[in-house]
TrEMBL record, chain A:
Its main location: membrane. Residues 82-301 form the ABC transmembrane type-1 domain. It comes from Bianquea renquensis. Pfam families: BPD_transp_1. CDD domains: TM_PBP2 (cd06261). The lineage of its organism: Bacteria, Bacillati, Bacillota, Clostridia, Eubacteriales. This is Sugar ABC transporter permease. It is a multi-pass membrane protein. One of its GO terms (biological process) is transmembrane transport.
UniProtKB/TrEMBL annotation, chain B:
The keyword Phosphoprotein does not apply. This is Carbohydrate ABC transporter permease. It comes from Bianquea renquensis. The chain crosses the membrane at residues 20-39, 82-101, 113-133, 145-166, 187-209, 267-287. The lineage of its organism: Bacteria, Bacillati, Bacillota, Clostridia, Eubacteriales. It is a multi-pass membrane protein. Keywords: Cell membrane, Membrane, Transmembrane, Transmembrane helix, Transport.
Length: 310, 302
């Protein structure tokens, strides 16, 4: 039985490695990918502390310490991009996070299985629409004279409004369209967890006279709590990350004051103005804060309850 | 479950009625914009602009699609996207599934370290510029190859697949294979893979959609227009409105008003959206049976 898969690890290490030599070939391409496209750039992150020159390479460029970070903290954009980023992610968390939970709980109560499946299938569809098309749809729909939204406004007796030219409207467009596109998708994980609810418990509660609302509140929702906590921790870990694509595509000169976020700033400074080291410093600052937030929230959650990421 | 339908309390009947209305409203909110766009792509653009088209086509026309057909660049990019999607997805599966399987094996020495290697980039990466410089040094800038190998695998998908293998392929079966003298390679191909079609479908869909919708990587790494994928051309049509306006201009032999050009440009946008979304939604429709099931397996335990 030396070739057994689950046998206790009695054989010497070398033998256990040799026995499964083919498995190392299985992981080779993926490992190569991670090293080339993830770890080499990670090594290159040191240019945040250097003045990068292509001729000198990652390691050979002049060392300047924290100069780029200090320049970022002192720059006019620092406050703006941080504020915009936090506004968008904070509101997304506040509004976008509970919606999939609510949707999963309510969908779970639909008694006709076929109708339930239909709703779920269709609610997932918007997830497959690309960001470019999503933004294109928003631009068409929000057009002040020809767009669907303003046709609806005028049908309701309201005057037309140019949402995309308004700085204060930007975050709402971003968040509400995000809810439209991702609610079905995000709810899958909750919906799956609800399959684990003890049906005997539900039946007992029903016989004891608990109505549906009470059963959801006292039985179904508690089942979701571990999942909710884990996802919440992960969301908090990305409070300083707004996806680049959608913001960039919806940006225009008029809403820029509210729509310039860290990732779009990094792109513009780094690849358009070719200020490589500064841009890398900004992004590194962002990653570090994200990691700290993640660890912090994970620590707090671990203290408060049983659930944490690790 | 079924019994509940017949002996519900009064409270529950109220709850259900509200819930059914609510869920039906969700259905309408999700579907309406999509149906509207489909309708608008077949309608007279003036009727759409003035708000007379609400659901189904008004003054049916195929004009928008005719304009689009003449626009060769979009079809070149469509072809590029198909190439990137098919080649990219095949590579994704070949890289991801064997690795995920190896990671699911408890007797695989070093799997803890490998997991760490794979997890770290999820939280900490070199970022945009160092990655760009690396790609440039590799000579992959402005090549088709970059769009295919640039995302050869993904941490999240690796973990979902690993969870699938470790939770659905019975250990006893693999043991039996080993006793019969199967090598790991044969075990994977002959025994594990045939039982893993749901995860293959889900991964093909995840990666495939990613390639089809890819725009950021293409924007950064590609310069030549002949290599552009569909999404970059769509961006010009939908967001920057340049191409659509240009096409409308070129096509009009008569001197036409700006308003007319704007209407044609709108129509081209609606049709462009339809031709870009349709394939994804069709594939999703076919695969969705595996889909929810496959995601759930990964979601619960991952």
């Amino acid at each position: 039985m030396t070739r057994s898969i689950s046998a206790a690890a009695k054989a010497p290490l070398g033998k256990r490695i040799l026995k499964n030599w083919q498995l190392y070939l299985f992981v080779l391409p993926a490992v190569a990918y991670f090293i080339i496209f993830k770890y080499v750039p990670l090594y290159g992150i040191q240019i945040a502390f250097r003045n990068y020159k292509a001729a000198d390479g990652f390691f050979g460029s002049e060392w300047v310490g924290l100069a780029h970070f200090i320049r970022f903290f002192r720059s006019y954009y620092f406050g703006t991009v941080i504020r915009n980023t936090l506004t968008i992610t904070g509101l997304s968390l506040l509004l976008g996070f509970p919606v999939p939970i609510l949707f999963a709980l309510l969908l779970n109560e639909i008694l006709h299985t076929k109708y339930q499946k239909l709703i779920q299938t269709i609610s997932l569809a918007p997830h497959f629409i690309s960001t470019v098309v999503m933004c294109g749809m928003l631009i068409i729909f929000l057009n002040p004279t020809t767009g669907l939204f303003n046709h609806i406004r005028s049908a309701l007796g309201l005057t037309s409004f140019n949402y995309l030219q308004s700085a204060s409207g930007f975050k709402w467009i971003y968040i509400l369209s995000g809810i439209w596109q991702e609610t079905g998708w995000s709810s899958i994980i909750y919906f799956a967890a609800l399959a684990g609810v003890d049906s005997a418990l539900l039946e007992a509660a029903r016989i004891d006279g608990a109505n549906k609302w009470q059963r959801i509140w006292h039985i179904n929702l508690p089942v979701l709590v571990p999942t909710i906590v884990i996802l919440l921790i992960m969301q908090c870990g990305s409070l300083l990350s707004v996806g680049f694509e959608k913001v960039y595509l919806l940006q225009n000169d008029t809403n820029l004051s509210a729509s310039e976020v860290i990732s779009t700033y990094v792109y513009k400074v780094g690849l358009i103005k070719s200020d490589f080291s500064f841009s890398t410093a900004v992004e590194m600052f962002n990653s570090v804060i994200n990691c700290i937030l993640l660890l912090l929230v994970n620590f707090i959650a671990g203290r408060l309850g049983e659930t944490s990421l690790w | 479950m079924r019994r509940n339908r017949f002996d519900r309390s009064k409270d529950d009947i109220v709850f259900d009625s509200i819930n059914y209305c609510l869920m039906t409203a969700v259905l309408v909110i999700v579907l309406y914009p999509l149906v509207y766009i489909l309708g608008a792509s077949f309608s007279d653009p003036y009727k759409v602009a003035s708000g007379e088209m609400w659901l189904y086509p008004v003054e049916f026309t195929l004009e928008g699609y005719q304009y689009l057909l003449k626009y060769s660049e979009i079809w070149v990019s469509y072809g590029n996207t198909i190439v990137y999607t098919i080649a990219g997805t095949i590579l994704n599966l070949v890289v991801t599934l064997p690795c995920a399987y190896a990671l699911s094996r408890k007797d695989f020495v070093g799997r803890g370290w490998l997991m760490l290697l794979i997890m770290i980039p999820m939280y900490f990466t070199g970022g945009l510029v160092p990655t760009y410089i690396t790609v440039k040094r590799l000579g992959l800038l402005d090549t088709r190859l970059m769009l295919i190998v640039g995302g050869a695998t993904a941490t999240y998908n690796l973990i979902v697949s690993r969870t699938f293998f470790s939770s659905t392929i019975p250990m006893e079966l693999q043991e039996a294979g080993v006793i019969d003298g199967c090598s790991n390679w044969k075990l994977f191909i002959r025994i594990v893979m045939p039982l893993s079609m749901p995860i293959v479908a889900v991964m093909a869909m995840f990666f495939g959609v990613g390639h089809w919708n890819e725009y950021f990587g293409a924007m950064i790494y590609l310069k030549s227009r002949s290599l552009y994928p569909l999404q970059l051309i769509l961006r010009e049509i939908l967001i920057q409105s340049e191409v659509a306006a240009e096409m409308a201009m070129v096509d009009s032999d008569l001197i036409e008003s700006a308003a007319r050009q704007a209407r044609i440009s709108d129509m081209i946008k609606y049709t462009a959206i339809v031709i870009s979304i349709a394939p994804m939604l069709l594939v999703y429709g076919f695969l969705q049976r595996y889909f929810v099931k496959g995601i759930m397996i990964g979601a619960i335990k991952g």
